[in-house]
Amino acid sequence: MVVILSACQTTKDYSAERLSNAEEMIKSGRDRDAYNIISGFSDVSNEYGSRARAIIEKNPAFKEKYPQFLKAEFTEAYSPGRLAVLRNGTTDMRARGLITAEQEQELRAYADQLASDGNRSGKLAFDYSDSVQVFPSLGTPEAQSLIFKRSLEKLTSSNYPNSALVKGVFDQARTSGPKSPEAAMVLAALPSMKLSAEEVRQHVASVFPEQAKKLLADRSITVRLVTEPDDRLLFEDLATKVRAISSNLTLVTGGDATVTVTVKKLQWEERRDPERTQPVVYSQGDVNLLAAALLMPRNASYQYDLTTGGVELAYAFEVKATGKGIQPYDNLLRDKVSRSWRSCSNARIQNVFGGVQRADFVANDHMQQTCSGGGVPVSADSLRNNVLDDVVRSIKRIPAIERVASLR
Asked: CB count, 10 Å around CB of 277?
């Protein structure tokens, strides 16, 4: 708590010092440097925001230059997103009295011109993932054509395209019509796009229904899962994990399936180590010197109870895959896994006369090492779950399944 409060106090002192520095900069004519500090506080609703706005108000010459500083910041905008943030921030600045309504309109018009020029030159490369709609100049046919082409190029080169990018490109193709140049460009680029099945259904299907149908068919797979010998619990546990491999995978119990996966249990042997508790005793000479001198009676012993246990699982599974036109798959999984645990409790000091008192300290490095970690009992169920994860990883490596699992 002391550390947190100290950090908060340091932050407050730093903010106050920066604002004091800004006031001195204004007095010495370094207005732009002062703006760089004050602008970081002026739109904040706290004591420092109030102080920053008060500094602006009591320096009329500085306030008169404020729109010029904003304009310069607009000019220096390094991305479409940054320009949009600055442009939208003028509403709050007007509301706080930092600029007039007329100055707000002038700044917005300037931002709009920067957006138009930047979009044309490529300095501000707008695409459909940006706030295009806040700049009226980007609504012209010329600007829209540049944004569409740029968005399409970005869409085809991205492994995980922005959802707004996907929507914008296909909305433009639909609006332009199926025989338009835009639709032809999107159709030609469609095989290169890394789209999810949901994006194909939501955006592609309404523009190119036949292509969407084929894309969905190519990326989907039906799987029949069989366990040998028949084991309902094993089947249900595996089925849950197999369904999670990919949204493109459908588990079926009847009818035709692209792949039939057979999981044969060859070995499953569980062995538990019974829980055992035994006392650990340290003589006073074995205890850390300072603790022994200050906290233990002469010739007393330090004792605690050490509880141990464990579980071991030996298993073997055969995973096979068959299906028309698919590469056969046969994999043997075989291993032995074991987990042990231990916990320490009832630390106590026993004097030579038989009296016992609670010990609230660690006796020595040996106790520290013995009692650190591993204190949670391990269940056979947790090991079983880990083994089934290995089986499902083997299923995922079946080539036909691996292909669709790699698709979004």
From this structure: 12
